[in-house]
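notes to self, project folder thing:

trying the whole complex as one job this time. last attempt i did each chain seperately and stitching them together was a nightmare. two parts in total, labels are on each line so i dont mix them up again. if this works i'll redo the older ones the same way
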Amino acid sequence: MSEAADHGVPPVVRLGHDLVRNFEALPPEKAAVEIATHIRKFWEPRMRHELLAHIRWGDTTLHPLLVRAAEDLVDGDVDRSEVREPSGG
Amino acid sequence: MTLLDEFAPETPDRGTPAVFGEATAQVTVDGISVMVPVGTSVMRAASLAGVAVPKLCATDSLKAFGSCRLCLVEVEGTKGTPASCTTPCTDGMVVSTRTEQVQQLRRGVMELYLSDHPSDCAGCARGSCEMQRLAADVGLAEVRYGLGGASHLAETPDESNPYFAYDPAACIVCSRCVRACSETQGTFALTVSGRGFEARITPGNSDFLSSECVSCGACVQACPTDALTEKSVVSLGMPTRSVVTTCAYCGVGCSFKAEVQGSADDTRVVRMVPWKDGGANEGHSCVKGRFAYGYASHRDRQLSPMVRDSIDDEWQVVSWEQAIERIATGFLGLREKYGVGAIGGISSSRCTNEEVYVVQKMVRAAFGNNNIDTCARVCHSPTGYGLNHAFGTSAGTQDFASVEQADVMLVIGANPTDAHPVFASRMKRRMRAGARVIVADPRRIDLVRSPHVEAAFHLPVRPGTNVAFVNAMCHVIVTEGLWDEAFVRSRCEEADTYLEFIARPEHSPEATERETGIPASDLRSAARLYATVPNAAIYYGLGVTEHSQGSTMVMGMANLAMLTGNLGREGVGVNPLRGQNNVQGSCDMGSFPHELPGYRHVSRPEVREIYEALWGVTIQAEPGLRIPNMFDSAIGGSFKGLYVQGEDIAQSDPNTSHVEAALRSMELVVVHDLFLNETARFAHVFLPGASFLEKDGTFTNAERRINRVRPVMPSRVGKDEWQVVCEIATAMGYPMSYAAPSEIMDEIAATTPTFAGVSFARLDAEGSMQWPVTDAAPHGTPTMHVGSFVRGLGQLTPTVYVPTTERANRRYPLVLTTGRILSQYNVGAQTRRTPNSTWHPEDILEIHPSDAELRGVSTGDVVELSSRVGTTRLTALVSERMPAGVVYTTFHHPVTGANVVTTENSDWATNCPEYKVTAVQVEVVTQAARAEVDAVAAQPVRP
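result (full assembly):
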């Protein structure tokens, strides 16, 4: 993932990589969970579908962590407990 | 409190400020006994006893001065006739205010004043000058020295300020104005020059306009004669009645008396006078709220609905019914053709809570989706995310009065003297009383050093490195053992994880110095100062939030406050300085795509059930589109219709070309606003909006204070904005109606726990209330997180510094950051249509001398400002306030359009744009370009 390359990439890829940069200091499994949780809480469905489409197309510019997080989007239902608290912002 | 036929009552002027304390004194004034705190002046005690003592130099917003000698009294057992304003009460004191000797002395004093006062004083004639009234009060029958003294009659009044004039002939040199400028405003622009009969008020060696005067109006407010008078009073005459309402400019939310004349159908605003009993402003104001209300009657104001088929067509005026039918048919058609998610709405942070609530209701119930967002997206959405994550609620922790208990104020990424001037006056007053300020800002803002105030530290943090800075602060506090372990262990969770994280050497000031640009020794000293005083408060603005790590920085500041135990009492806290008058309220009202009112996620079935039961619809459980996502989806072809209320996204949002491309991609854009703004260039339907003078509702300011907005005049466009929204929803097949805005607030209160005790009636009775207003806090909650956080334990969060991807490089070697200026507001749609443009007719690019010299730039040159997304031209100002490598401009003027160059980079969590970091280059342009910019800047602000 190149920072410069994010200029001009599809918005969902750029936004996904922003999440990766924020969480990649965590252990990979935890980072993937945090990214997936954020996407489920704040991304409108068509944005999630577009990201998954990029993965299906084999977009090689996608960071592996983003791909890993997207697996949770496909497999898991939204865990409502994560949004029990106020979620302003 | 709403009295449309007479003046709204307020606490009388008791002559000297209130004193607080437990010790009391029993005083008898003219036979009337009264109990007052020890230290209260005799004048104030008399007022409390119902006895009015004549006065000229005294007013209760200023410390006693004792110069006019009108307020003399006799005190039993003491010699002479002391001034009641400067004499403190003692227990058992017996005061007489109307003995023959006292009255004779007062008449003598008034004779002297009147001997040098214009015999044909227009102010006396219309009632704006107190001299004749006081003469009658003291029983003065004749002036033995004759009338019409010569002093100052030959001097030219100072008419330079567009809003008020100074007439030396009417001045009695009581110095109330000088003291108001110093004590209340803190600018110290005025002084008394000359002695004796030659004494007069001067704003330094210049006129008012050229001086350091910030036109706050405090001097005019304080003046007892007509020496300082609003030009509007001179031209229109005195008002006949007033309405108490709330300013529609910044997030301070000042209360004003709109003083008007004329009939209900032909109301003219004579002046806006800051309301003494306003909870947020306590009788003070700034140039915008005090004087810049004329935009509401500007000739550019659109008063009729308009439609057009294409954005290239001319507008056609239509009826409200036709416009609403066009909107409903259009949105329904787009939904049918492209799907339910193809339309959405943007609510305004300048409209009332009630108006914003019905917009999100329209989107959810009539549109059938969650595609609702608000301009908080582009300013304080990281505040919501970060404070909610850390504390459990998305709002500041204190009220403004809390600053009076602060020992240290850490001001980060905020310029309150420009953006929140009334609150800045409080800060400066606290600084003059001994509190110390740490300023973390790239620029040397006024709080760093201005008359009688100087920051203890100016930490010139490089744009984009805030998180590294706050981590370094916390690192010092933890590694030097300055953290409040008792607070952390009892009130926070994840402490050990965070402590281990922040103690790592990469977070030290020495390790981060190269990145942040802050000398390590200064940062260590500042951290020690913050951590070791009894009360330390954080105040921050968009210089924190408008970054790619905006949310992370908010959490970092929350960490800092929790580490040091600076939460849950007065004088401390984490205080976001919200930019707009109702950005707090629009967030509270559920104007986010993932939240219903009260910050409750749409996926929570128990929350959806509340609204589904009340509204009779099914609410989507998935989040909708944020504003930037709307733009992306529009360009992508799946988002086709947009309702925009009170926001000029084509000017205020970043990467203007991208926004314009998105708007062009849509098939139906509806703009609901006062003026044909930049966004309206891409609109198919224009709905005329109502100004704050015509609204009936509430605003919520930065301290969660819900204030009433009361109609000063009927809607000039024939409908209230909330009515229009309801009619759109109804035309789309979802019947929505209310009999009055109070019913909307009743619905809000019934469905939103933090607003449970709020109603228009309660607000009228209480004046204002700070949410949460609940059974446990029936009068509101000034200070939050007392005893425990809203989420229980505060969340300490490791805040990893991630550098922004927007870095200076060889092609774009400078960093642009943006901000605001005092006289203009946001996109300037309101203030540019007032004489405020006298001070700021164009956006200016501030550049450091070394950067300027390298480029051959001098002050006044037109320069080309370019980034990887766009180019614009601005006039340059070479300024040592800037650090090398950073340039600065404002975004108040659409022609120069700073957002042409800002990029799509945004906060990772909220997509709040990274306005504060754009890699740019600056180059001088030709003389032809200079003429072009001059021509644009010279476009007049029509009266």
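what i see at first glance: The CA atoms of residues 6 and 14 of chain A lie 6 Å apart.
need to look closer tmrw
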